[in-house]
Amino acid sequence: MTTEPLTTLFSNLITIKSHQPEIISGKFLATIIKLLTLLEKSPGGPYYNETKELDLKLNTLIATWLALFNIHLRPLNSFLRKNKIKIKEDRIKTSVSKPTNIIYDRITRRAQKFMATLGPELNKLGTKALTRLLQNDTDQQILLLPLFFKKSLGRNGQSIPPKTITDLGLANLYLWLAYTIYDSIIDNEQPAATIPLANIFFKEYLFLNHHIFKNYPTALSLLSQIIDAMEKANIREIHNRGIARKLKMNYGNQAILAEKSFAHAFSPLGLLIILGYKADSAEISYLKLFFKHYLIARQLNDDAHDWETDLKAGYFNSISLQIAKFTSGQINYKRWRQIFWDRIFMSSQQQILKHTKRARKYLARLSLIEDKEYLRIFIEAIELGAKKSLQNQIAITELTKAKLL
């Protein structure tokens, strides 16, 4: 028999410790230790449930939670070993491994070779920017999105040459390098002296795409439209830095969030044009809508994690703007954090899930994509994070009601 209140409690405690450890206070820990003392069969475990039974599931959860604090109780672990249960300290995975890929390596080598031609100072800055970008690109989407998209097409994508995929991956890398530097300058994280390097990367991005799509004017026209929309979004961000003006910015139209990075979607769109699809075809429309909702969900997720960091850099993102509407405009970080958790957090995660659901809907309509898993995995990573965050917050609310937090 399992005592659900205790198993639910320690299951929630594991989730909180793994994803929001900052909310665990010393007073709270003391309460749990006191509870364990009341439940223990003998010092160090194992532990009884509320009906005085040595419940295996409950003891496994208790041991797992303690392991997250690097606490290992011999009596408890001995009890679990006798029942063939092993507690792994790495139960919660926090990183994604990067499989070696020939095209991935080829792209990075080409970028490094190009930067070596820029001279010692720019090469040093470029190499640093490249290293940081690749470290953050855990799903390899920046370099390999064209490859993933080609593979998703199955037989429909077999005619696309490997060189086109490599060139598009390199172009996407230059795009991200350029706009990462531009964003850092706008956010006062990098000096204006790095503008020439960003300009060089952006020039290479344009050069590669104009070479790849020289026989496809429709693709180049689409690229021009996407870049214009991106630049207008950046101008809005710069213009609305002050809170008085920022509060007037309408993030209710969340399409703005996708416009800032929609060039990321250009390589898949361009590949469809190479394959003969017209710019106004249903396939391209559905693919645009897939990326629109995916990128909105991704930006909302980033904003929910980074709103305080962005705010300290003088930048109001979509989340801090919502917080500000519940204040007089005066920034008080302690108060703003409270507003975030009480009023904004749950709705922001629900908004993320709304957009991932819409992205799934449009992906399902793309009949030319034979293996949708290559694109669905990007949605699922964000979706899983939002669902876990909602579960965490529900658990925190329940624990607070029970006066355990």
Question: Summarize this, please?
Answer:
The protein has helices at 4-19, 26-39, 56-67, 74-82, 102-116, 120-136, 141-153, 162-186, 195-212, 217-239, 243-246, 255-259, 266-274, 282-312, 318-324, 333-364, 373-401. It is mostly helical and 405 residues long. The protein folds into three domains: 4-92, no CATH class; 101-212, no CATH class; 238-405, no CATH class.
Helicity range:
55-70%
Regions with little confidence, pLDDT below 50 for 5+ residues: 89-100
What is the total tally of β strands?
Answer: 0
Give the overall average pLDDT.
84
Name the shape in a single word.
globular
Q: Strand share of the residues?
A: under 5%
Compute the number of helices: 17
Radius of gyration, CA atoms, in whole angstroms: 25 Å
Query: What separation lies between the terminal Cα atoms?
Result: 27 Å
What is the structural class? mainly alpha
What is the domain tally? Answer: 3
* Main beta-sheet annotation: none
What features would you describe in this structure?
It is a single chain. The chain is an all-alpha fold and 405 residues long. Helix content is 69%, strand content 0%. Helix 7 (141-153) runs antiparallel to helix 8 and helix 14 (282-312) packs antiparallel against helix 16 (333-364). The radius of gyration is 25 Å and the shape is globular.
Write the layout of secondary structure elements.
Layout lengths: L3 H16 L6 H14 L16 H12 L6 H9 L19 H15 L3 H17 L4 H13 L8 H25 L8 H18 L4 H23 L3 H4 L8 H5 L6 H9 L7 H31 L5 H7 L8 H32 L8 H29 L4
Which key terms come to mind for this protein?
405 residues, 0% strand, mainly alpha
